[in-house]
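Reading a protein record of the kind used here takes little practice once its layout is understood. Each number in the token line that follows is a code from a learned vocabulary of backbone shapes. One such record is shown here in full, so that the layout can be seen directly:
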Amino acid sequence: MALETIEIQEKLTETFGENVFRFTQERDIFSFEVASDKITAVILFLKNDPTLRFHFLTDLCGIHYPDNEENRQFAVVYHLHNWYENKRIKIKAFINGTNPEIKTISNIFLCANWMERETYDFFGINFIGHPQLKRILNMDEMISFPMRKEFPMEDSGRTDKDDRYFGRTTINS
């Protein structure tokens, strides 16, 4: 029997109640949000449940929403795949903009180690419990996080590119 999205939703709401919400179907990917403090429990449940079997973490990334309210300025997005049923899901957990941090899942999926380091490197999101959270692609001396919207895309002296077209505000000196 094929795994249906309603079955995933029912199992999650039965186990986690109001900590999982905003269930939607976006093309062929079932999506929902999770309270950030419950992310490891939800990921473990999805991986270990004998019916759900989401054993593969496809991707983990960050998103910056500078115009959102303070406790929803950053999101960590997880893409999981059930190979048995060829079912994909997307999980989004919003976190605080002042102190962006969330628990690591590198102890659940080893591949999350690199993905979390990359997300830290570009967004400044701290993954609590990560075994070696440090910059992976940018210079260690770098004090900013280049994927945040306040980071300018180009040299401010350039006139041929405008950050406003890329959803970024221009930093005035």
